[in-house]
Design goal:
Elements (H helix, E strand, L loop, with lengths): L8 H7 L5 E2 L7 H11 L11 E6 L2 H10 L5 H4 L2 E8 L6 H10 L5 H14 L6 H23 L3 E5 L4 H7 L6 E10 L1 E3 L9 H4 L6
Antiparallel strand pairs: 1-6, 2-3, 3-5, 4-5
Helix pairs in contact: 1-7, 2-7, 5-6
Bound molecules: flavin mononucleotide.
């Protein structure tokens, strides 16, 4: 089969819509899924801590288990894969690994690394909303990258917040370190997305100050 040319950025953005009817026979070749996940993980993140984990659910049995947790939304079982994007509430634990590379390559001294790691660990101390806010914020950026990458490669997606997070954690043995942020269905559209419009810019843009 001839490989589809990837779409350009603006075409991808304009043509992405939430698809809820998928061809249940369609699958995603592993190398394309890998490309899409790699694009997702190129998202920016605070201190480059990469607060995301992608739980790929493509086993039909697992999708059936997920279906009632997601209020029986049919796209869960009809799409080729559901990617549960999880946010890392202990992303400070990644700091050493993130900065070690810079030290090894001579871009950063060990002293600078230790100062940075100390600052990051301090930000995560105490019982504050910060770790959870950061997990949602940064994992959401990766989710958007994922949806656009999938669209550019000829797949459709639907972001889903409509699922029971507690039940999801239990059913999929999600470790305490991670919070489910959203589910992303990925597959081939059987029916186009519902029409959706956006507010005019005058309604959403404020210049300089309120
Ligand atoms: C965080 C989030 C949660 C969403 N949850 C659901 C959902 O549970 N089920 C669903 O069918 N669509 C869901 N959507 C899709 C929205 O309804 C959709 O993005 C919006 O109506 C705009 O349409 P479009 O994505 O087709 O442009 C969600 C979207 C976002 C961003």
């Amino acid at each position: 089969m001839k490989k589809q040319q990837d779409l350009g950025l603006f075409q991808t953005i304009n043509e992405r819509h939430s698809v809820r009817k998928y061809d249940p026979e369609a699958t995603i070749p592993e190398e394309e899924l890998t490309e899409i996940l790699e694009a997702a993980s190129k998202a920016p993140s605070s201190w480059n801590l990469q607060h995301w984990k992608f739980l790929v659910v493509d086993d039909p049995k697992k999708k059936e288990q997920l279906l009632p947790i997601a209020y029986n939304q049919q796209q869960i079982v009809d799409s080729a894969a559901v990617i549960a994007v999880l946010g890392d509430v202990q992303a400070n634990e990644n700091a050493e690994d993130v900065y070690q590379g810079a030290v090894d390559n001579g871009f950063m001294t060990e002293q600078v690394r230790d100062t940075l790691v100390g600052q990051i660990n301090k930000a995560y101390e105490g019982d504050t909303p910060f770790p959870r806010d950061e997990a949602f914020l940064n994992a959401s950026l990766a989710s958007m990258n994922l949806m656009l990458a999938a669209k550019a490669k000829g797949y459709d997606t639907c972001p889903m917040g409509g699922f029971q997070r507690g039940a999801f954690v239990k059913e999929f043995n999600v470790p305490e370190r991670y919070v489910p942020v959203m589910l992303l269905t990925v597959g081939k559209a059987a029916k186009p997305a519902h029409q959706s419009a956006r507010f005019d810019l005058e309604k959403v843009v404020v210049k300089n100050t309120f």
